[in-house]
Amino acid sequence: MSDIPYRDVDVDGEKPGGRLMEESYLGERFSIWSWLTTTDHKRIGILYLISTTLFFFIGGAAATMIRLELFTPAGDLLTDDGYNKVFTLHGVVMVWFFLVPVIPSVLGNFLVPLMIGAKDLAFPRLNLLSWYLNILGGTFAVWAMLSGGVDTGWTFYTPYSTAFANTHVSLTAIGVFISGFSTIATGVNMIVTVHTMRPPGMGWFRMPLFVWAIYATSLIMLLSTPVLAMVLTLLVTERLLGLGIFDPNRGGDPILFQHLFWFYSHPAVYIMILPGMGVVTEVITCFSRRRVFGYAAMVYALLAIAVIGFFVWGHHMFTSGQSMYASLTFSFLSFIVAVPSAIKVFNWIATMYRGQITFEASMLYAMGFVGLFTMGGLTGLFLASVPVDLHLHDTYFVVAHFHYIMVGGMVSAFFAGLHFWWPKITGRLYPETAAQIAALLMFFGFNLTFFPQYILGNIGMPRRYHAYPDAFQVWHVLSSAGAVILAAAYLMPLGYLVWSLIWGKRAPSNPWRASGLEWQTGSPPPKHNFLANPKIEGSVYDYHPAQQPRREPSDD
Amino acid sequence: MTEAAAPSTPGRAIRSPALASHFHDLRQQHAAADLGLWIFLATEILFFGGLFAAYLVYAVLYPDGFLDAAAETEIVIGTINTALLLTSGLTAALAVKAAGAGMRRSVTMLIAVTIGLGLVFLGAKGYEYWLDLDHHLYPTSPEFPLAAPPAKLFWSLYWTMTGLHAIHILVGLGTWGIILFQTVRRSFSLTDNSRIRIAGLYWGFVDLMWLFIWPLLYLMGRAT
Amino acid sequence: MSRATQHGRDGNRPAADRRSLLPPLMPELGVFLALFALTATSVLVAFWSALGGLAILACLAIALVMAALVMTFFMHLRSAMAVMMLAGLAGVVWLAILFGLTMADYLTRPGDLGASMQTPVKAETKAEAAN
């Protein structure tokens, strides 16, 4: 495209001292307008950080109401309908406007070009467009929720969503549809960048595993999101135009909706977890001062998860009326996807083994991720087994399982990454002790919130109910108490990270003495990422080159 | 493209105005643009794929209902439209070729013909829709002429498939329209910019989808 | 690419080449004629009653050939990088996954094809009658 968004900010302007602030991407032309029209991948990453944080707290507010309602057995805080709307709001906002975009669009946007030594993503304007589409979609969805809400749950199952629900299903679906374009735009950008913008020397198997994770995530985004877009289109045309594809009165099959929906939504689970795995790999290698164990195995495991993730969607449908032969096939395939996931867990542990581990906040978050993800993954195997699933389907066991993956896994990983790269993104250091306390609090609060839900599910508490027998109350009270701690643990980073923006110490360019190209440039990086072409030598995780002592003194 | 890829460019002494600052050279930029569009087309395949999956499931479950329902579509208009799209595919492909050779007059003419054919396609489609509505061939019509319930599934799919395809044609025509305007204004370099190749690829894809929609909706159920 | 200005000049092509009205027509024109022939064949096959309901399968096979021609020549896949073919191929392979596993359900449901889909109208009326 001919009209170039920016150019000619160049090495010529370099001054020996104080160049960081002048040339950093943050310092240049500070006005709201310059931020809203920016095509700099770093600034767009920050725009995404702000918007996903906002959506996180909207979804979190809904979660708070759910936990408050469930404190007592009677449905006293919310009406039946109100409760349905609140958990739908929670699901829709958290899944599509927080979990799916958060790591690829915030950290991925910021870091992928830096990590591979490129000046920007391949399509900077498309990148900005993706943010606006995300905001537009989110506005639609939140608007629908506020102007009356949706009561279908985030899954929009037919025929309820098409024939019966008289809430704002179409509006929400359109919002999600629009955000799908945003996801696709990000995915295209990441894949094309990785394929075409690596400088000489940055071979495929020299890329940081975070970049590999974003690459694998983008593959899933691109191949699954269109099917969600189609199924939502069919849903909306059925509601608005009467073009009923899933209408049982015409011989239509509501289960077909579930097939198409889960063709997206199961891989979407991997959209939400793979980037987290990438972040954790970077953090664990850095704070163990160890080369990552089994780099190639990590790469193949990521790709295997991305591909096999498409073969397992039917395990959401064991009780739906799907053929039992299909159920058994899907069950078997679901067990297979556990293999690459386990490879990753073992490799993280092997990386830490005999490492010189230090417990910085991001390392605590990352270690929390490994434990919680393992827990969530193993309970996933329970659910992949047909007979066990018949017992546990649609109970709190399922809720606990996916929260261990999504919140325990992905959110921990996001915080690990946010803390790890915060000095790089903002040029400031946050108070380490406060961050360590928050990380521990989050681990503790999370387990207190969600572990009781495994037990609740096993003793028969169904999900999506707001009133329940007294026998379940003790577990619900524990869970709600944990949620209070968890809420505090989420608010703490908001406090000290914002504090650090103003009062935090200035960060050196490599505060953690980490390897990786992004640490070779200033903190915050200059507008075009590198003042000189970055040096690409050795492997990515050269934490203990053979001839040197493992921990050399920092020369910053 | 061979021209842009020539290694004779000495560093950045002569930067093409078409080259964005974050790319090293035009070849890299062209590769990125082409790959980006091919990936987008893969997502488009899966987008329509959801619809084709629905068609497949119901055609297998209700073969008779689908054969009967499909016999009601306007095969003449459908086939004429196939011919129109194939012809426009030819002119679009030639436009891309001409752009690569820097032949501005030829590009202008070929794009104009492509747009013309696309408009005729939409006109024919509109007439066909009018006939369908006249025959009450929409699922919510109280006088829907076919008895078997799955016929309504077929006609839901008919409207969704042709409607989404028509939207893609509209997007393509809009893109061609902008490019035609820019070509006449000479506001971009034919050889250095990727946009004609990108539009050509997209148009080829729109062609491609119709090649499958046409047999599924129009040729089905004719052999009786 | 020794171009100082962008406007008015499109590379160093020979003047005659730039003025000619059309680029070389081959192979696109040949492919186009083949596509037309295939279109006609497809229509004939569709009306050929010996095939009955299966005619659609033959038509789809022809459509596959036509699609391959369009991709190779009209969309220039012939000269594209391998990774672009891979992108297109990924779309097709994932489509096969979607079709395959979805049909794995429908084709193995108990009873005749479509039996699981009957709306339980009669069962309901029976139940009501029993009440």
UniProtKB/TrEMBL annotation, chain B:
Report the PROSITE patterns cross-referenced here: COX3
Domain named Heme-copper oxidase subunit III family profile: residues: 35-222
Q: Spell out the GO cellular component terms annotated for this protein, sorted alphabetically and separated by semicolons.
A: plasma membrane
How does this protein lie in the membrane? Multi-pass membrane protein
Entry keyword Acyltransferase: no
Q: Which Pfam families match?
A: COX3
Q: Enumerate the UniProt keywords alphabetically.
A: Membrane, Transmembrane, Transmembrane helix
Coiled-coil stretches, from where to where? none
What this protein is called in its record is Cytochrome c oxidase subunit 3
UniProtKB/TrEMBL annotation, chain C:
Transmembrane segments in this chain: where? Answer: 29-48, 54-75, 82-104
Keyword check for Aminoacyl-tRNA synthetase: no
Name the InterPro entries on file: Caa3_sub_IV, Cyt_c_oxidase_su4_prok
Q: Where in the cell is it found?
A: Cell membrane
Q: How does it sit in the membrane?
A: Multi-pass membrane protein
Q: Which Pfam families match?
A: COX4_pro (PF03626)
According to UniProt, the name of this protein is Cytochrome c oxidase subunit 4
What organism does the UniProt record list as the source? Jiella avicenniae
